[in-house]
């Protein structure tokens, strides 16, 4: 080893033997934070106005569990439909066809620019605007028609409103993930003669998932909470079920706490699942990092 490198290594060894100062400031900050949270928890747990015995009574009631099932069902169906439509919209936004780009951008602009609650109300009151729904040739013969009230029920209005709104957000998330993949991957797929859809399925989308999963998980959690808006169109979700109970018993705060606790429990489980999926798609990146050689000085490994 050269003489010029030896003093550097000696300094590094001296620094490695140095002791860090006792983190009294950090310990004091932790003590303050723990004390505040403990005080808040104690105040909530011992506040009789929350009526925790009523919360325990209704937490697993049949009506509440049925509402929870509706909430979870709406979330799954709306996310699946919204993600499928969002993928098509993202491809349209990235298309070289100006018509597809314009139509996709117009869709995203409209559904992201109007409140979800307003969209749900429009779907629910669609019969006011269009008494019948018809299938046929534009400005030509009609093949079939149905009364709008028979087609647009509270369930179909909720699914349509949530799915179409979610598609606009998922389109931008997927588009951002696709743009994060190096352009060379597309060129490699073309060089191997892959079609655009095959390249997306086998090469591009798996790499883009590292960028798509975190915001998609956030959207899923937002969807769980957004389903509470369907209570305004008489859809029996979790919040609507809690409201139906406290309208009879006048125990407003305890029933709202039941809904809050269920929302927190479901979103906590989803957070765990999201973290597991993120680790799965990041495993290749960790493997590449572990294979990176350690830095060296003058041919010596540090």
From TrEMBL:
Q: Does the record's keyword annotation contain Nucleotide-binding?
A: no
Question: For the ABC transmembrane type-1 domain, which residue ranges apply?
Answer: 68-271
Q: Looking at the keywords, is Membrane present?
A: yes
Could you tell me the membrane topology recorded for this protein? Multi-pass membrane protein
Q: Please, which domain of life does this record's source organism belong to? A: Bacteria
InterPro entries linked to this entry: AA_ABC_transptr_permease_3TM, ArtM/GltK/GlnP/TcyL/YhdX-like, MetI-like, MetI-like_sf
> Which regions span the lipid bilayer?
27-45, 65-91, 103-124, 252-273
The alphabetized UniProt keywords are:
Amino-acid transport, Cell membrane, Membrane, Transmembrane, Transmembrane helix, Transport
Gene3D superfamilies assigned to the protein according to its UniProt record, in alphabetical order? MetI-like (1.10.3720.10)
- The main location class comes to membrane
- Report the subcellular localization: Cell inner membrane; Cell membrane
The text of the family note is: Belongs to the binding-protein-dependent transport system permease family. HisMQ subfamily.
The name this protein carries in UniProt is Amino acid ABC transporter permease
Species of the source: Alsobacter ponti
């Amino acid at each position: 080893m050269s003489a010029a490198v030896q003093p550097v290594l000696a300094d590094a060894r001296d620094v490695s033997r140095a002791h860090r100062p006792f983190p009294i400031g950090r310990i004091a900050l932790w003590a303050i934070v723990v004390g505040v949270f403990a005080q808040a928890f104690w105040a909530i747990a011992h506040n009789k106005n929350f009526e925790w015995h009523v919360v325990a009574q209704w937490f697993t009631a049949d009506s509440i569990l049925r509402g929870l099932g509706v909430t979870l069902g709406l979330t799954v169906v709306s996310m699946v439909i919204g993600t499928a439509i969002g993928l098509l919209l993202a491809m349209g936004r990235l298309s070289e066809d100006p018509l597809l780009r314009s139509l996709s951008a117009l869709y995203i602009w409209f559904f992201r620019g109007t409140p979800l609650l307003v969209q749900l109300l429009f779907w629910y009151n669609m019969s006011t605007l269009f008494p019948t729904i018809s299938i046929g040739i534009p400005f030509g013969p009609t093949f079939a028609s149905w009364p709008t009230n028979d087609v647009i029920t509270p369930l179909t209005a909720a699914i349509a409103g949530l799915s179409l709104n979610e598609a606009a957000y998922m389109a931008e998330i997927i588009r951002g993930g696709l743009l994060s993949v190096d352009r060379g991957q597309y060129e490699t797929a073309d060089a191997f003669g892959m079609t655009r859809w095959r390249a997306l399925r086998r090469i591009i989308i798996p790499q883009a998932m590292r960028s798509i999963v975190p915001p998609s998980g956030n959207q899923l959690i937002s969807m769980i909470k957004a389903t509470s808006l369907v209570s305004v169109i008489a859809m029996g979700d979790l919040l609507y079920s809690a409201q139906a109970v406290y309208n009879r018993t006048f125990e407003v705060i305890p029933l709202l706490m039941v809904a809050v606790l269920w929302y927190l429990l479901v979103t906590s489980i989803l957070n765990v699942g999201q973290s597991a999926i993120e680790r799965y798609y990041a495993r290749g990146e960790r493997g590449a990092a572990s294979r990176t050689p350690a830095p060296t000085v003058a041919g010596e490994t540090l």
